Amino acid sequence: MSTHELPYIAAIGEAIREEMERDETVLYFGQNIATTDDDPFLKQFGSDRVRVTPISETAEIGMAVGAAIAGYRPVVELYMAEFMLVAMDQVVNEANRFHYMSAGQVKVPMVMKAGYGFTCGWAGQHTGTIYGMFMGVPGLKVAVPATAADAKGLMTTAIRDDNPVVFFHHYLLTLEHGDVPDGEYAVPFGEAAVLREGGDVTIVAIGWCVGKALAAADQLAAEGIQATVIDPRTLAPLDMWTILDSVEKTGRLVVVDQSTRQGSAAAVIAAEAADEGFSSLKAPVKLVTALDATIPYSEPMEEYLLPSEARIVEGVHMALGSSVAA
Amino acid sequence: MPELDAERLVWMYTQMLRIREFEERVKRTFEDHPGVIRGHTHLADGAEASIVGSLATLRDDDQLLTTYRCHGYPITLGTDTKALMAEIYGRRDGICGGYGGSMHLTDVSRGFMGTSGIVGQGIPHAAGAAYAAQIRGKGQVVLSFFGDGASKQGAFHESLNIASLWKLPVVFIMENNNYNVVTRTDQEDANAAAGEPLAVKAKAYSMPGETVDGGDPVAVYETVGKAVERARSGEGPTFVESLVYRLSAHGNLIAPPGVPLHYPEHEAIAVFGNVEEYEAAKRGDPVPRFRARLVEDGALSAEEADEIAAAAQAEMQEAVDFGLASPLPDGAQATKYVYA
Known about the structure:
The complex is a heterodimer.
Chain A (H helix, E strand, L loop, with lengths): L2 E5 H15 L3 E6 L8 H6 L4 E4 L3 H13 L3 E8 L7 H7 L3 H4 L8 E7 L15 H4 L5 E3 L4 H13 L3 E7 L6 E5 L11 E4 L4 E5 L3 H14 L4 E5 L2 E3 L3 H11 L2 E8 L4 H13 L8 E5 L8 H7 L3 H13 L5
Parallel strand pairs in A: 2-3, 2-4, 4-5, 5-7, 6-7, 10-11, 10-13, 13-14
Antiparallel strand pairs in A: 1-8, 6-12, 9-11
Helix pairs in contact in A: 1-7, 3-4, 8-12, 9-10
Chain B lengths: L5 H27 L15 H8 L7 E4 L5 H6 L3 H8 L23 E4 L7 H14 L5 E6 L6 H12 L4 E7 L2 E2 L2 E2 H4 L1 H4 L15 E5 L3 H16 L5 E6 L23 H4 L4 H9 L2 H12 L4 H24 L15
Parallel strand pairs in B: 1-2, 1-3, 3-4, 4-8, 7-8
Antiparallel strand pairs in B: 5-6
Helix pairs in contact in B: 1-2, 1-12, 1-13, 2-9, 4-13, 5-6
């Protein structure tokens, strides 16, 4: 597969552009896009399909639901993930329910593109890692790309999916470059990526934490500890099979998540591992998450709350140091 | 809009009567067959003229989205009332297979695209469907139905703003029944409290706002018809305030299992002790009012009117019988439509 190098954010844009070229029912609208005639999307696709909206999340997402019911595939540009919270009913109680309540008479293919986790001084209300709030919502799919290639491939799949998808891209990864496949590239939902294989411990990491987990795995390898690193890539559907297969081999599981701990995706993965994989576990599952607090503005406090390479290493040491009484 | 000839007027009356009879049978089911209807139902009795007058303006390829008070629209559009009653009874042959129930009737084959049970939240769906219609460019129009309570939701204001800004082919029809559940409009609406019609809200979004007697199907037809023509010609949305009086309580009793459900008395009496208000509304009941008018104008004879009533009664008896006879769905089908 031939590739080209792109920043993560441009890879997402490439997927949207290619899908809009391929399928004229794909729409792209939201706040602060296409405000001048020079906008490349507006120039290429015209003002029917590309529109700037007012700051009206309920209407933006609600209209995407309506347009999707009526046969289109809208991608809503939401900027910050928190802005979805203004319109929570549309996300978790409208978009995801219409197919079900109508016994399949309607489909709601739409993508909510939301940036998250901007932990670089954006303080309390623009830094949340909130994907966990959406992963347990029936009818909704949740994609969390960690690399430029996955960002493109998961956006392609999100647009082609017949269900509402919340697409969470990490703001700190925005300019991270990566090799991105040329042309049409779709990463299937519900297929975790095994990024590194090792027999001592399984590290499951989500989004921004994937890079941290890989760095921690390098550090652990220098100590002689071999880690498997798994990125679920989508939280709904969640590929527990790949995780359970790995835990069967390693017997130890560390889950890394930038979210606060309670009610997190990490907690769900740990519970599933305990439920389905208890007999494989040689030690308690360790969670490495943010501490349960609002993200503060000041850097040392922000850093203190977040999971880090060092905390992942520490989590692995704890998982290896403890064991279930034989 | 075309003039309403006698045949069309009789059609309108027939639909009004069918809605009334259907709703009466839903209500009676609580007495006749306790336990058959679960949860919450909301009836359109009193709003028939508004519903039928509005839908009479539509083309076959037009669309609508409504609230949870949604029985009247598909009845008018021609959805089989057996499938509607079976849905309200939670049966396998229901229009939504028992997945939706009374609050979530949908019949996409007739442009009835869906219903939101959350106040105001279906309004942006209609705006979105209108955006789709605008792109498609076939001159389709979308009707958005909601109540007076919904006009206090952000979804209403956000949607009217974008619809006007983008000149979307949508007509916003607010059925103002003067009550948000048990709260009177003048207790929650600044315009109502100031003695102004709620239609003035349209001014804030630079679109026409009209108030119409929702008990008069011809007046509704003319007002909504003008708005539909405006939308179809690309001039953008209109906000229509249709004044109706809900003749039943907001919904059936809200109670946990074990408590028999029924329709309580209307809030005007039960909450506010205003018997005269309710009695006046009954005297102005749009269904007999329209019948008298058609008979007086010679569009309909009294015998024909009786035949229409008898046919509606027979149809709804059949709907009840069908609903009762339809099997309950297999529980294991409950995970079928989680994802498309």
